[in-house]
Amino acid sequence: MSKEITARAEDYSKWYNDLVVKADLADHSAVRGCMVIKPSGYAIWEKMQQALDKMFKDTGHVNAYFPLFIPKSFFSKEASHVDGFAKECAVVTHYRLKNDGKGNIVVDEDAKLEEELIVRPTSETIIWNTYKGWIQSYRDLPILVNQWANVVRWEMRTRLFLRTAEFLWQEGHTAHATAEEAVEETRRMLDVYADFAENWMAVPVIKGVKTANERFAGAIDTYCIEALMQDGKALQAGTSHFLGQNFAKAFDVKFAAKDGKLDYVWATSWGVSTRLMGALIMSHSDDHGLVIPPKLAPTQVVIVPIYKGDEGLAKVSEVALQIKAKLQAKGISVKYDDRDTQRPGWKFAEYEMKGVPVRIAIGERDLANGTVEVARRDTLEKETLSITDLENKIEHLLQNIQDNLYKIALTRREEMTHRADTYEEFKKLLDEKGGFIYAHWDGTSETEEKIKEETKATIRCIPLNNVQEAGVCIYSGKPSTQRVLFARAY
Amino acid sequence: MSKEITARAEDYSKWYNDLVVKADLADHSAVRGCMVIKPSGYAIWEKMQQALDKMFKDTGHVNAYFPLFIPKSFFSKEASHVDGFAKECAVVTHYRLKNDGKGNIVVDEDAKLEEELIVRPTSETIIWNTYKGWIQSYRDLPILVNQWANVVRWEMRTRLFLRTAEFLWQEGHTAHATAEEAVEETRRMLDVYADFAENWMAVPVIKGVKTANERFAGAIDTYCIEALMQDGKALQAGTSHFLGQNFAKAFDVKFAAKDGKLDYVWATSWGVSTRLMGALIMSHSDDHGLVIPPKLAPTQVVIVPIYKGDEGLAKVSEVALQIKAKLQAKGISVKYDDRDTQRPGWKFAEYEMKGVPVRIAIGERDLANGTVEVARRDTLEKETLSITDLENKIEHLLQNIQDNLYKIALTRREEMTHRADTYEEFKKLLDEKGGFIYAHWDGTSETEEKIKEETKATIRCIPLNNVQEAGVCIYSGKPSTQRVLFARAY
């Protein structure tokens, strides 16, 4: 195999980094913390976007676009938002460069902005400043808008897809006449995210609500979906925020109700990002490379011919192209790789590295037998199948792979989910097994922070419809009414 | 009508501004020069993106994503590129804000970047710096990559869609082993743009090559498509550049040919932007509002019920929804507007303003007759049609509107295209008629600039396959071999 990667058992973190680069998904750029998303990686992101965009539209949302830049003063308008976001930001201070006469390009000090502009880390402020002009009465509500955009948060320690200074995402920003409607929207979009994670990404998730400490800066409640990676660390895969009237008050956005009374508008925001690429990779891939669930695979089936000479290739190609056409007619995306510059073994390893779900190999001997060799990427199993009705068998196999990946991920998560009743047990589980730990907590931010300091574990969420159960906090020994979900996280 | 706009004859420029705002396409934002693209406008842009993206993929291209920021020093690497682009740029100098202790958010001077970052005005430099790592041998070529992104050019005078500080676009960046192949690619993408403009936007264009003065900074040749707006001003609707080896040399990108010899890689770049929205609006719209060609209309047909009382609505809705379903089965996008908060007349004006190509009105009397009233947006003509086979009639009508809009635009362009043989005639035509003017030019930048200074007219292009014809330059009287295309332009 031309491209080798570190084994997971040896160094999981290095395995991830190797894989992202060797599978041609992304790479570091010349700009600190910013990534280049390569065509193979971007094609998966495009599939994600298409599926999500359709789900957003099916739930009544429309797309729009708001400015990249936000005036600095906007960040001061919502008291808690400013603490959360007016920190590690890219700040635009000038709008012109000039030649200094010695052949150097320098910033033109005469072109200093009166007010600095911040490259958006998230768009609540600029969007609510805009909504002020869109909303007068209840007739203008609800506003159900989504934006696909790039955002920048100046991260000191970056990892491809998981944490980068610039990343791509979608951010929904909705406006409602009542708190109930806004909460309903918040929960609806959480369900959309969970549906996408489980049925498209084949990643099981736990839906829950964040503690005050982990809440979005400016939210009343932050809902999230939490996934568990193969190494036992959690990953927050999407968030949906009920913002109350906080941003409406900060930007003075009122509406006249049917009875003529003026009230502030209720808000939500919700987003997922290219971070999902990291979650996808870390959920399913193995030491041979990437594993992509068929529903998100840009190429679902690759056909590789095995032959001698031009005449052999011509014979094999005739059948291969018939198979390709039949698969395409089923809506399956197929690549026929008849390049003569690489050997079949090299191609097999290449498509394993790139995570193509199904590989079909056709040799000259197969022609006589009316068979092909079919290999599935998830289990690496091979079988010889008759060409008759092959398209239906492959269609079925793709669905089977999709289901199997989800089942494996779910089984793993269940095996890696534990309960701890004492702090000692909690720390032992964290160090020896990792994974999710359900434990009692006294409900205070103080305890939460102490546990985080001492163990690096955080409360991922309080699961929705959580079982109520009397107990004592593993840290403080104070009474508790329910277990919450702890884990070390990405 | 609730939303009135200035008439074109009165003030074309004001008409445009009114229309963009009143048809809910876009609006100014709190950030100087940056626009908000509203849902109605963004939906059209999405249709454009989908059509273009498919054309790019059908010609072998893939999408990728490169960083928003470009290190300042990159701009100095290509000598002519720096003059063109290292000017009016957004410059990021700091990466942190802080609270000054008096409740103000200020830039943290301790977080000054060692090297300033420029918000990309175009991405040749960062992309060719990346390609250096992707290209070793002829086997790595061609690279056929496109990026959908936002870019920033600090414009002093801005107009919604036509010229904004931030705009959305796509930029193709390809790498080739030979000059011939790169030129072929440049021309292929010019053809794709012309095809899109004419067959989707219904905007006839003239394909040509720019003079040295108007060339992209860093290109050997810039090809363009030029359209003529209703007011007789030209609009450059897309450009495709043959970049030679300029960027490969600037970023030291060499490849080993089959014979092992090292050579610099050949490049192209090509782009269209949200400026196309301006071209679309100014080509077809009228004093009643927006006119959108059916192939780019997010809603192609609107059905408006005319009724008295809930019972009347129920009867009309039954038939309306049947019609809607039949149209949708044909792949036509339909909206049934049964809101009871607005009268039919208000709705008619609203959909005229928003440019929905076909409006179907159904009244209670129509039910007895088995008819509907069909109004087409392009000509504002109405006719009564039998419900029988209505979906096929509407499908035909939409095609007819698409063709008619192109025909009208083409006829207008032909009527507004003139020849001038003297400078006096040239200036008279410009002032009295506007439009395209074919005139002889001596081929020097000096003459081109003088004409521009004195008349504000520029050479839009030297049309491809231009008729060769001996003559004398209208300005200098020097000999000329061909007429070139002049106009005042957006």
Describe the main β-sheet of chain A briefly: 12 strands, mixed
Distance between the termini of chain A: 30 Å
Number of domains of chain A: 3
Largest interface: pair, residues per side = A-B, 64 and 63 residues
Amount of beta strand of chain A: 25-35%
Name the features.
homodimer, 490 residues, alpha+beta, BirA Bifunctional Protein, domain 2, Rossmann fold, Translation Initiation Factor IF3, 3 domains, twelve-stranded mixed beta sheet, five-stranded mixed beta sheet, 13 helices, 26 strands, 35% helix
Describe this structure in words.
The structure is a homodimer. By secondary structure, the first copy, chain A, is an alpha+beta fold. The first copy, chain A, folds into three domains: about 220 residues, BirA Bifunctional Protein, domain 2, CATH 3.30.930; about 100 residues, 3-Layer(aba) Sandwich (Rossmann fold); about 70 residues, 2-Layer Sandwich (Translation Initiation Factor IF3), CATH 3.30.110.30. Helices cover about 35% and strands about 30% of the residues of chain A. Chain A has 13 helices and 26 strands. In chain A, strands 3, 9, 10, 11, 12, 13, 16, 22, 23, 24, 25 and 26 form a twelve-stranded mixed sheet that branches. In chain A, helix 2 crosses helix 5. The first copy, chain A, is globular, with a radius of gyration of 26 Å. The relative contact order of chain A is 0.11. The model of chain A has no long low-confidence stretch (mean pLDDT about 95). At the A-B interface, strand 2, helix 2, strand 3, strand 4 and strand 5 of A face strand 2, helix 2, strand 3, strand 4 and strand 5 of B. Strand 5 of chain A pairs antiparallel with strand 5 of chain B, so a sheet runs across the interface.
